Amino acid sequence: MRKLNTSDLMTVVSIFGKVGTQLKTDENMTNAQVGIQFLATAAQYAEEDLTKLLASVSEMTIEDFRNMPIDYPLEVIEHLAEEEDLQTFFKRVKGLTEKLFKK
After folding, report:
1. Which of 36, 58, 71, 100 has minimal CB crowding within 10 Å?
2. What is this structure's pTM?
3. For position 38, what pLDDT does the model report?
4. Going by C-beta distance under 8 Å and a sequence separation of 6 or more, which residues neighbour residue 79?
5. Residues 80/4, Cβ–Cβ less than 8 Å
């Protein structure tokens, strides 16, 4: 598996755009809770983009990714959690969500 890079940015932006106002966060949530909420919401509203991103990180086609065992996406997410600074990413997601979508 590879690390995230700038070529993933447009997919992440697309996911964030589709998740948008559907992502429910509050100031009491931890970054980990925001991350879980983000992934759950992305799976519901941006499944194709999320699959594209996880397949790309796995360095396989979308079709091959879809044929992997049911727990494989969790393995990819664990890889990202270990290899990337997801705490910072989800902290920024939380901040952006609060800025963009709070009334």
Report:
1. 71
2. 0.77
3. 85
4. 1, 57
5. yes
**Tens digit of pLDDT for each residue in 7-30?**
888 888 888 888 877 888 787 888
Range of the domain at 97: 6-101
Exposure letters 6-35 (e unless 16+ CB within 10 A, then b):
eeeeebbebbbebbeeebebeeeeebeebb
With beta carbons less than 8 A apart as the criterion, state whether 12 and 53 touch. yes
Q: Is residue 1 part of a domain?
A: no
pLDDT at 81: 79
The string of DSSP codes covering 21-35 is GG----TT--HHHHH
Number of independent structural domains in the chain: 1
Average pLDDT over residues 67-88: 85
CA pair distance 36, 5, nearest whole angstrom: 21
- 35-60 pLDDT, tens digit per residue, is 888 888 999 999 999 999 999 999 99
How many CB atoms within 10 Å of residue 92? Answer: 12
| Residue corresponding to tokens 């360095």 | 59
